[in-house]
Specification:
297 residues; two-stranded parallel ribbon; 12 strands; 18% strand; LRR_dom_sf; F-box domain-containing protein
Length: 297
């Protein structure tokens, strides 16, 4: 579960991180565990965010609030071991990027910027991404050549996540890549499935393959817009979730048959099932009966 690291914390305005390299030595030496950077919705280059790690090497938790980040050209990215330390955030374990609106961000941009950040976070364990669906969200078309090409040039993140929550702010291919890189460590997954299935064939295939491989180790799964999820994965994918202990399916009233089939195929024995309030139909009550008889609480 995503949580802030204990210890001293600092709240900064986005403008302040530009001036961090000029901070007095005594300020740079301050041991902080959590930094919250407040933005105004205007995109900031990834470089000053990376430089934030220089004075705060012991940082455990970083929260970027309403601060979209834009990528640097590959030739300008801070190279590990060159102008930057080996990793800008060597001890960071929690990263949260929450953006109300991403203006003028094409699908490769926000994903590329995020991956540039990730490359300097070897010990990241908990990642949360939230963005307005009007921006570069999971619903953005992901099987176009330029996005696939951009993704192919990104290096895999060095981290192995324990929990990953994504409700926008990254292309579907990016989500799939993160799941794949943490396939042996991911235990808690929350994903909002708002992509257009007619324009994401390639991305869906990669997402489906990555999640099927990661599924046996996932203990908690929360899905928003589970109709898209069930259509993408197929109900037979339930058999892969052999260790699932908690399942939350939201907005599944229109695909209750598929949800029933998915739940009935789960091989677990400790499932706790959460469904949206207001379920009244006979089919929805049957889903609860199936879940209770298949995987008792």
């Amino acid at each position: 579960m995503l949580s802030s690291a204990p210890g001293p914390a600092r709240s900064l305005h986005a403008d302040a991180i530009i001036a961090l390299p000029e901070m007095p030595g005594r300020e740079q030496g301050t041991v902080l565990r959590t930094v919250v950077v407040h933005g105004t919705g205007t995109a900031v280059s990834v470089e000053p965010v990376l430089l934030l790690g220089n004075p705060f090497q012991d940082l455990r938790s970083l929260i970027l609030d309403d601060l979209p980040i834009s990528p640097l050209p590959a030739r300008h990215v801070l190279a590990r071991g060159a102008t930057a330390p080996q990793f800008c955030f060597p001890n960071l374990t929690v990263l949260s990027i929450c953006v109300d609106f991403i203006a003028h961000q094409e699908p490769p941009n926000a994903t590329s910027a995020a991956f540039q950040l990730f490359s300097h976070m070897p010990n990241l364990s908990h990642l949360k991404l939230v963005a307005s669906p009007t921006g570069d969200d999971i619903g953005a078309s992901s099987d176009r050549y330029e996005l696939s090409d951009a993704m192919s040039r990104l290096t895999d993140p060095p981290f192995k996540l324990q929990s990953f929550s994504c409700a926008g702010g990254m292309s579907l291919l990016g989500v799939a890549r993160i799941i794949w890189c943490s396939r042996n460590s991911l235990r808690d997954l929350s994903v909002t499935c708002i992509w257009d299935r007619s324009s994401n064939a390639l991305a869906e295939s990669v997402f489906r393959s990555s999640l099927r491989i990661a599924a046996p180790r996932i203990r908690r799964l929360h899905v928003e817009d589970s109709c898209t999820f069930l259509e993408t994965m197929g109900v037979s994918a339930a058999r892969a979730f052999s260790q699932l202990a908690f399942l939350s399916l939201d907005s599944c009233s229109e695909c209750v048959g598929a949800a029933q089939a998915f739940v009935s195929l789960l091989p677990c024995s400790l499932l706790r099932l959460h469904l949206p309030a207001g379920y009244r139909s006979f089919e929805e009550r049957r889903l609860r009966v199936i879940s209770n008889s298949t995987c008792p609480n």
